[in-house]
Amino acid sequence: MNGKDDTPKGVAQLRWRAEEIAKEQGTPSPEDLANLSYEEALRMVHELRVHQIELKMQNDELCRAQAELNATRERYFDLYNLAPVGYFIVSHEGRILEVNLTGASLLGVPRAALVKQPITRFIFREDQDVYYLHRKQLLATGEAHTCELRMVKADGTVFWVRLTATTQDPSTSAGQGTGGAPTSRVVLSDISEQKQMEQEKAELDARLQRAKPRPRPGPKPRRGKNGKKATRK
Questions:
Q1: What pTM does this model have?
Q2: Which of 75, 165, 191, 213 is the most exposed place for a label (fewest CB within 10 A)?
Q3: How would you classify the pairing of strands 158-168 and 86-90?
């Protein structure tokens, strides 16, 4: 958000260009100005005043548009960085290109330190195959794909996430140093509490199943002397 810093430089550049154009078009000589009639001089002054007002109005409009652009950038900055989920831009090779504040907080690593790191570095070893199959399907179909796996923070803490990835148009990643290669958007949602509740529920169900009383066997049928069941008369 450096639009304000660029404005003085842009105005100076615009003035320089205007002076160069004026030199090319030529400057009226004093003799030409002396030969102007009173009406022509008034008309020239009027045209200059109108042009000056027009330039001021254009400058005011540019300043208003710049202020709106800065406000929009700030809103999107908050939406992107303060979202409750982690947003990542991942290269075709699986390296992190961009990450929001929430994503960096999930992994416990500063944002700058995450750039160019392989995202697989933070995936739990036993779930690497889950991510590999997820990635393979995403690149093969180009359609959004979701999986659940475990990741590892910088301090070694393991936590569950729901990972949703979509492919990104190469034209939108031109400024990310990918050389036009496809990238993907990855959204990470921490579902550790949900997984903990599911595990506790499964353990409770297992205990209840074990605690259920078993049905008592009924009386054995009476048999006759020849070993056959006795029949009632």
A1: 0.60
A2: 213
A3: unpaired
Task: Give tens-digit pLDDT for 57-78.
Answer: 888 888 888 888 887 777 777 7
Residues ≥6 apart with Cβ < 8 Å to 102? 81, 82, 83, 84, 85, 86, 87
CB atoms within 10 A of CB 162: 16
Q: Which residue has the tokens 């595990």?
A: 199
Q: What's the rounded Cα separation, in Å, for the pair 116 and 192?
A: 26
Q: Residue 228 corresponds to which tokens in the numbers above? A: 């056959």
With CA atoms as reference, report the closest residue to 122 among 110, 109, 133, 111.
109
Task: Label residue 135 exposed, middle or buried (CB < 10 Å: 0-12, 13-18, 19+).
Answer: buried
Give all strands (DSSP E) within the chain, no chain letters: 86-90, 96-99, 145-152, 158-168, 183-190
- Alpha helices by DSSP H, listed for 82-186, are 101-107, 111-114, 128-141
Give pLDDT tens digits for 34-52: 676 778 777 878 888 888 8
Domains of the chain: 3-81 (no CATH), 86-196 (3.30.450.20)
DSSP state of 120: G
Residue 155 dihedral angles phi and psi, to the nearest 5° = -90, 5
